[in-house]
């Protein structure tokens, strides 16, 4: 879908297409629709990012709480969203050994107990080793830093989901040696 098509979507259609850009938070897409017309994917991405940043801490925590645990119950019971399943699978989290699965489950519980929201990381930019490392490291963080870090990861996940939905064409003609926008 290109930008012109995105800009032509009704809000119902926009929420249908982008409703899971932020995991299980269609409200974000519903709010971002007001920022049309968009000029590029980067522009859409900025609108999602600004809306998330504008939330109070309780709203940011709410966004995090909509995320499933990595390698958690939803993965085992087959109830992950298609986006999340593809991401967790790419990071190798569907292929964990018994010890690795146990370790991530223990760390996920400790993390939730400490911060009151689940550990969130952009699975597509990591593998199971770096995820386990960062989970241990971030457990030692303080609440304010961790909230900021986790929301940064939500925005990374969102950027990659947007890139998969919108093709990088612009309203103007393609430039030679065109470099796609960095998200
Ligand atoms: N908990 C968590 O990080 N979940 C997510 N990460 C990601 O890349 N996709 C998710 O669903």
Automatic annotation (TrEMBL):
Question: Where is it predominantly found?
Answer: other
**Catalytic activity, as annotated:** 5-hydroxy-2-oxo-4-ureido-2,5-dihydro-1H-imidazole-5-carboxylate + H(+) = (S)-allantoin + CO2
Q: Which Pfam families match?
A: OHCU_decarbox
Q: Which GO terms describe its cellular component?
A: peroxisome
Subcellular locations according to the entry:
Peroxisome
Name the UniProt key words of this record, in alphabetical order: Decarboxylase, Lyase, Peroxisome, Purine metabolism
GO molecular function terms noted in the UniProt entry: 2-oxo-4-hydroxy-4-carboxy-5-ureidoimidazoline decarboxylase activity
Output the InterPro entries linked to this UniProt entry: OHCU_decarboxylase (IPR018020), OHCU_decarboxylase-1 (IPR017580), OHCU_decarboxylase_sf (IPR036778)
Please list the GO biological process terms of this entry.
allantoin metabolic process; purine nucleobase metabolic process; urate catabolic process
Give the EC class as a word.
lyase
Pathway, per Swiss-Prot/TrEMBL?
A: Purine metabolism; urate degradation; (S)-allantoin from urate: step 3/3
EC number(s) recorded for this UniProt protein: 4.1.1.97
Domain Oxo-4-hydroxy-4-carboxy-5-ureidoimidazoline decarboxylase span(s) in chain numbering: 7-163
Q: Function, please?
A: Catalyzes the stereoselective decarboxylation of 2-oxo-4-hydroxy-4-carboxy-5-ureidoimidazoline (OHCU) to (S)-allantoin.
Q: Which NCBIfam families match?
A: UHCUDC
Q: Which PANTHER family match?
A: 2-OXO-4-HYDROXY-4-CARBOXY-5-UREIDOIMIDAZOLINE DECARBOXYLASE-RELATED
The family annotation for this protein states:
Belongs to the OHCU decarboxylase family.
What protein does this entry describe?
2-oxo-4-hydroxy-4-carboxy-5-ureidoimidazoline decarboxylase
* Species whose genome carries this gene: Albula glossodonta
């Amino acid at each position: 879908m290109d930008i012109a098509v995105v800009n032509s979507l009704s809000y119902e259609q926009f929420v249908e297409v982008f409703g899971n850009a932020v995991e299980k938070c269609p409200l974000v897409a519903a709010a971002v629709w007001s920022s049309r017309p968009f000029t590029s994917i980067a522009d859409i991405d900025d609108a999602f990012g600004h809306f998330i940043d504008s939330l109070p801490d309780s709203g940011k925590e709410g966004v995090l709480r909509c995320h499933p645990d990595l390698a958690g119950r939803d993965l085992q019971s087959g109830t992950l969203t298609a986006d999340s399943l593809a991401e967790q699978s790419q990071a190798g989290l569907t292929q964990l050994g018994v010890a690795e699965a146990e370790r991530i489950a223990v760390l996920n519980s400790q993390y939730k107990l400490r911060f009151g929201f689940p550990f969130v990381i952009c699975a597509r930019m990591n593998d199971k080793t770096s995820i386990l490392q960062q989970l241990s490291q971030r457990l030692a963080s303080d609440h304010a830093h961790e909230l900021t870090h986790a929301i940064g990861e939500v925005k990374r996940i969102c950027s990659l989901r947007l890139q998969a939905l919108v093709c990088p064409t612009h309203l103007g003609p393609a430039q030679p040696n065109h470099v796609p926008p960095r998200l």
